[in-house]
Amino acid sequence: MLTLHVAEHSPEAAVLIDGASVVAVGPFEELTAAAPRARVRRWPGILLPGLLNPYAPELLEATYHPDPREADALGTEPITGERAREIFRADPARLGASARRGVQRMLAHGTVAVAGELRSRAVADVVRRAGLAVGRRPDRLPGPPALSPRPLILLPPPAPQAPARFAVFDVATRAELVERGAGTCVATVIEGRLVFRAR
């Protein structure tokens, strides 16, 4: 089924997808005329290629993402350092479940690709099943590990025949995205699937 994604502040960069692939990228009016039967998804903000997070090992293997049911004991924020290592040593099976929650947090920040050498097969499987692309880690890493690293690393723009991977951020400009960070993500699409949508 053809789906046309358009964002309020970037109508010139609408994306028409069919299944897992991009069919066309261009002005919303032109794509609507070319595919009048396409389902239209309208978003606030701007549509961008999505982000590469270069800190996959740090965020998925060295960070514990608590289950909401553990909030009373562990809180809701990611746990790092020796405390995270203690949790994984006590119960190695928690690594895969934590990584799944970590990937969900990444998707909620417009991440469509990750980088860094993953040593855990369980974590690598989580990344693969989520459909995240795996890229090359930059020579110079931006700041400390974060879900919204600074500077943000944008992937190349969507192109016809390429996998449908992109994200939408509820900002008016790229400058505002840089200022406010990737927590402004309202939608993330990977291989044509809406894998995150802000409530």
Could you describe the 3D structure shown?
It is a single chain. The chain is an alpha/beta fold and 199 residues long. It has 2 domains: 2-50 and 157-197, Urease, subunit C, domain 1, CATH 2.30.40; 52-135, no CATH class. 29% of the residues lie in helices and 26% in strands. The chain is built from 7 helices and 11 strands. The protein has a 4-stranded mixed β-sheet, covered by helices on one side. It has a 4-stranded antiparallel β-sheet with strand order 5-9-10-11, with no helix packed on it. A 3-stranded parallel β-sheet has the order 6-7-8, with no helix packed on it. A hairpin with a 6-residue loop joins strand 1 (2-7) and strand 2. Helix 5 packs parallel to helix 6. The radius of gyration is 18 Å and the shape is elongated. The model has no long low-confidence stretch (mean pLDDT 95).
Helix content: 25-40%
The total beta strand count reads: 11
Distance, first to last CA: 24 Å
The H-and-E topology, N to C, reads as: EEEHEEEHHHHEHEEHEE
State the low-pLDDT regions, or none.
Answer: none
Question: Shape, please?
Answer: elongated
Number of domains in the coordinates? 2
Name some characteristics of this structure.
199 residues; alpha/beta; Urease, subunit C, domain 1; 2 domains; four-stranded mixed beta sheet; four-stranded antiparallel beta sheet; 11 strands; 29% helix
